[in-house]
UniProtKB/TrEMBL annotation:
The keyword tRNA-binding does not apply. Its EC number is 3.1.3.7. One of its GO terms (molecular function) is magnesium ion binding. Its cofactor is Mg(2+). InterPro entries: CysQ (IPR006240), CysQ/Inositol_MonoPase (IPR050725), Inositol_monoP_metal-BS (IPR020583), Inositol_monophosphatase-like (IPR000760), Inositol_monophosphatase_CS (IPR020550). It comes from Halopseudomonas xinjiangensis. SUPFAM superfamilies: Carbohydrate phosphatase (SSF56655). This is 3'(2'),5'-bisphosphate nucleotidase CysQ. Converts adenosine-3',5'-bisphosphate (PAP) to AMP. Mg(2+) 2 binds at D87, D90, D215.
Length: 275
């Protein structure tokens, strides 16, 4: 299997960080609140330290930006042509509630675009990695990697969404699609939703609610490596521009949709925005 050099080391790093989080999983733990009132735990911070130290050792010339240390001045970030974008524990609420749907996300951003990413699922000892034009892979434990790819939209169309953040806009889209074809919905936490599209287990993930750049970048790389797309509401490739907010605009992740369904998906109200 031919892959760029960073993937093996990145997967090892994501797995190590993920294993560290399991020290606190399904156990009583203190939950702290960040300035935006989102939760953070010792598991988030331990994974953050492992990943940032590991990336600094692996690629000392590439800056690291982690959710748990995101107060880098805009002026500094504007000078970065490339940087690592990390969510050390995506799905902290899932982690706290004891489900296995939390992930470790590591992505490389170059000139405002994600080029490669690794998503670890610690509680399942599972890993996804890939990048646009590079392919995408999945590995269970220490087993052999297998190539993954999106599927042609199934009947019913499988739409995956957040366990905690459904919105009227998303329901309206489901209603429009449902008027034309059968739809099955699944609720899943964290960036695992993207991985299901990459693995051909789901067809569509519309997100018309708040997310941050570190929530999506690594998994977008996996979806794109698998032959899928992550797009904005005008159909453009989803990007990661340097600006004074980490919030994403609304987006849609998709596999291989037929033209009629894609037209319905892209027929969104012009005012919809995530920022």
């Amino acid at each position: 299997m031919s892959q760029p050099l960073p993937f093996d080391a990145l997967c090892d790093l994501a797995r190590e960080a993920g294993q560290a989080t399991l020290t606190w999983w399904n156990k009583p733990l203190e939950v702290m609140a960040k300035t935006d009132d989102s939760p953070v735990t010792a598991a988030d911070l331990a994974a953050h330290r492992l990943i940032t130290e590991g990336l600094n050792a692996l690629t000392p010339d590439i800056p690291v930006l982690s959710e748990e240390d995101a107060d880098v001045p805009l002026e500094t970030r504007l000078s970065w042509q490339r940087f690592w974008l990390v969510d050390p524990l995506d799905g902290t609420k899932e982690f706290i509630s004891g489900t296995d749907e939390f992930t470790v996300n590591i992505a490389l951003i170059e000139n405002g675009q994600v080029t490669l990413g690794v998503v670890g699922i610690p509680a399942r000892d599972e890993m996804y990695w890939g990048g646009r034009g590079l392919g995408a892979w999945q590995r269970q434990g220490s087993g052999e990697p297998r190539s993954v790819g999106v599927r042609r939209a199934a009947d019913p169309l499988v739409v995956v969404g957040s366990r905690r953040h459904s919105t009227p806009d998303q329901q309206a889209l489901l209603d429009r699609i449902g008027a034309r074809r059968r739809v099955e919905t699944m609720s899943v936490g964290s960036s695992l939703k993207f991985c299901q599209i990459a693995a051909g287990e789901a067809d569509l993930y519309p997100r018309f609610g708040p997310t941050s750049q570190w929530d999506t970048a690594a998994a977008q790389a996996v979806v794109e490596g698998a032959g899928g797309r992550v797009i904005g509401l005008s159909g453009e490739r989803f990007a990661y521009p340097t600006r004074d907010t980490w919030l994403n605009p609304y987006f849609i992740a998709l596999g291989e949709l037929d033209d009629a369904t894609l037209a319905v998906v892209l027929d969104q109200p012009a005012a919809s925005s995530g920022t």
